[in-house]
Amino acid sequence: MREGTEIVDEQGAVIGTVCSGG
Question: In which domain of life is the source organism classified (predicted)?
Fold first, then answer.
């Protein structure tokens, strides 16, 4: 996953925002 990037799956749940926050 990308740093500080909100990754949304097909169901609309946020899985990302790892290293740089979240």
Answer: Bacteria
CA dihedral angle for residue 18, residue 9, residue 14, residue 16, rounded to 10 degrees: 10
Query: How many CB atoms are closer than 10 A to CB 17?
Result: 15
How many whole angstroms separate alpha carbon 7 and alpha carbon 9? 7
Write the single-letter amino acid at 14.
V
What residues form DSSP beta bridges with 14?
Answer: 8
